[in-house]
Amino acid sequence: MEISGTWHYGYQTDDPEDDSDYGVPVLYFVPDSSAAERLPYWLQRGHVRSLRFANEAMATKALVPLPTRNALAAGHIRSASGRAVVRVAGYRISIECDAPTYWTTFVALRGAASLATSGSYVERPWC
Q1: Which residue among 2, 59, 75, 87 has the highest number of C-beta atoms inside a 10 angstrom radius?
Q2: How confident is the model at residue 51 (pLDDT cuts 50, 70, 90)?
Q3: Buried b (16+ CB within 10 A) or exposed e, 10-36
């Protein structure tokens, strides 16, 4: 299926004690409300607020331009985000830190993704 929404990529913190994935950028996708309404969800927890990609490296290469990934690795920026329509396959729901986490597999990017960079850290929509 195709899902429209906003992708977010970057570091969560600069505190190694606050983040078990310190120094590793994360990628997640926030589906538009119309897309979120089509996805299964835990009834008690409400609609899907964010999706993780099981094949995050592939999704990152498609969504985040190489110069942006390099700027992030060099410490010039802390995060990037943009709008995109992605084709995904499969769907999995897990509970982490007493919160639902939704997973899918990235298949392709339809068209081009938009891009904005930031000096702010990316928010963690799970745990």
Answers
A1: 59
A2: very high
A3: bbbeeeeeebeeeeebbbbbbbeeebb
| CA–CA gap between residue 30 and residue 73 (Å, rounded) | 23
Q: At a CB cut-off of 8 Å and minimum separation 6, what does 82 contact? A: 6, 7, 63, 113, 114, 115, 116
Comparing CA positions, the residue from 102, 27, 82 lying closest to residue 58 is 27
pTM of the complete model: 0.86
What is the sign, positive or negative, of the torsion defined by CA atoms of 6, 113, 14, 12?
Answer: positive
Q: What angle do CA 27, 33, 38 make, to 5 degrees?
A: 95
Report pLDDT digits (tens) over 85-119. 999 999 888 777 767 788 999 999 998 888 898 88
Pairing state of beta strands 51-53 and 116-118? unpaired
